[in-house]
Write a structure and sequence with these properties.
heterodimer, A: Alpha-Beta Plaits, three-stranded mixed β-sheet, globular, B: mainly alpha, 10 helices
Chain lengths: 206, 285
């Protein structure tokens, strides 16, 4: 089995959300549903100086996340119906819509805010890495749509060889929690000492 | 606050279920202590057992409203013992089936002797207690550190004791004419109601405190805490008022006080559960 994963270049992303819109369009998702989400993380402040000028340590960066298709997926662990499962073929975490009862337990358990309940269709939905496109030899729709080429996908071992093994920037959780199949190239802003004073400024969007 | 609104059916489920279960525990305590309950009173008590049973059935209906596809709920048979939510559902269903069987057997006169009645009501109470513990443990998720603590379970047990004791006390007082709630049984009911109020208030206050001290990139913790202050104050006030009603009146007036206390306790528990869902603050995103 070649475990599938995502790469995200945090230095390139401008937060345009084309990935989100391409995904929503491709899956014809209802308004509140997004399989991929872009978090705007900002923080810091402006301070007045005695001479009348201002200094700032303010920062802003974006974080585009779908599902991390974790090796220890919290959503799969807690799912009461086994609808949420890890496909042994490619390691992609998928929802069996014929089993899912839409209880929302996966939503509570996932530290990456990935699954959502689509009440209109009666089941959980989440990024499934466009597995049907992968079977046709294509890339996930978010990867092909990104105008900055900030996203990539493929077997996680290849991605690690190409891009390194950083799997966390603020406010993502410690990767030891679920072992995500995700690598990231951190931007300078995401490595500032004060980054943990930052917050997600678009919670309604995600 | 969004989390509270989203989880409204679950708040109703946990409120009604804990009170219904608590009433069965109270009835067991009263039956165990009061060996000489007169036959007419026992018959009336069996009829009124339909009230806590209705609470539990209503709770189950609320839980089903929470599901997007209730018809798929049969698939939980795949994860008995492995998913905390499945354990919660199964434990509650086992309790409910036992409670219904107990009610039918009691109504048809199958529990006329004190011994079998104590054993069967004890089994139902024990199943209810396990169900309440499972209800609390179902929320112990590592992604939500505040829930991943014993305090959610403590809150549910407090709700069971406070609301259940008052509902059970109302039914018992309505059933037996010869002041069955005097003496030892009444003392225990008062003690359970006080203990329930204390446990509910402490559990809810600790959850609130953890929520106020939480760190989150996603939620404005100060604003979230602000919206939960009024429900916390009301929970504390209503819990105290509900516990006091266990000490008021005699005879018919006592029944009225206990019934009022049950309603006040239901409001307190519902608000407390709202606070529980309001502190759903994730570790990451």
């Amino acid at each position: 089995m070649a475990q599938y994963g995502f790469f995200y270049d945090n230095t390139r992303c401008t937060g345009c959300k084309t990935c989100v819109m391409a995904c929503k369009d491709y899956y014809d998702s209802p308004l509140p549903i997004a399989r991929r989400k872009v978090y705007d993380v900002e923080g810091g402040e402006w301070r007045g100086e005695a001479e009348g000028g201002y200094e700032t340590d303010s920062f802003l960066y974006h974080l585009s996340l779908g599902c991390q298709h974790c090796d220890k997926p919290a959503c799969v662990d807690v799912c009461p119906t086994t609808a949420m499962h890890k496909d042994p073929k490619d390691g992609i975490v998928k929802v069996d819509v014929n089993k899912c009862m839409g209880c929302g337990y996966c939503v509570m358990a996932c530290p990456y805010n990935s699954p959502q309940i689509d009440r209109e269709h009666g089941h959980a939905v989440k990024c499934e890495a466009c597995w049907e496109r992968l079977d046709e030899g294509k890339t996930p729709v978010c990867v092909s749509a990104c105008p900055l080429r900030a996203l990539d996908s493929g077997p996680i071992d290849e991605l690690k060889r190409k891009y390194g093994d950083v799997r966390q920037i603020y406010p993502m959780v410690d990767p030891s929690m679920t072992e995500p199949n995700f690598v990231i190239k951190p931007s300078p802003a995401s490595e500032l000492p004060i980054v943990e004073t930052g917050y997600v400024s678009n919670p309604e969007e995600v | 606050m969004d989390a509270v609104i989203k989880e409204l059916p679950l708040a109703l489920f946990t409120t009604l279920a804990s009170v219904g279960i608590g009433a069965f525990v109270t009835m067991f305590v009263a039956i165990y202590v009061n060996k000489s309950m007169e036959a007419s009173g026992v018959k009336q008590l069996d009829k009124l057992t339909a009230v806590p049973l209705a609470f539990c059935v209503l709770a189950l209906i609320c839980a089903f409203f929470h599901l997007a596809s209730p018809m798929h709920a049969v698939n939980i048979v795949n994860t008995i013992g492995t998913s905390p939510m499945t354990n919660e559902i199964v434990a509650f269903c086992v309790f409910l089936v036992l409670a219904i069987v107990y009610w039918i057997v009691a109504l048809t006169g199958g529990l006329s002797k004190h011994g079998p009645r104590v054993v069967f009501s004890g089994i139902v109470a024990l199943a209810g207690l396990i169900s309440c513990i499972m209800m609390g443990l179902a929320y112990a998720l590592p992604a939500i550190p505040i829930w991943n603590s014993p305090w959610g379970t403590v809150q549910v047990l407090g709700a069971m004791l406070l609301g259940g004791t008052l509902l059970g006390g109302t039914i018992l007082n309505m059933s037996v004419k010869e002041t069955p709630l005097e003496g030892e049984a009444d003392g225990r009911i008062r003690l359970l109601a006080m203990l329930g109020a204390l446990v509910l208030v402490v559990g809810t206050a600790v959850l609130f405190g953890m929520g106020a001290g939480a760190k989150s990139a996603m939620i404005n913790v100060a604003a979230n805490t602000g919206t939960l202050i009024v429900p916390l104050i009301l929970t504390i006030a209503f819990s105290i008022v509900a516990a006091i009603t266990a000490f008021l009146g005699r005879g018919a007036k006592r029944t009225a006080w206990l019934a009022c206390g049950t309603i006040v306790a239901l409001i307190a528990i519902f608000l407390a559960r709202g606070i529980f869902y309001g502190v759903q603050i994730g570790i990451g995103l």
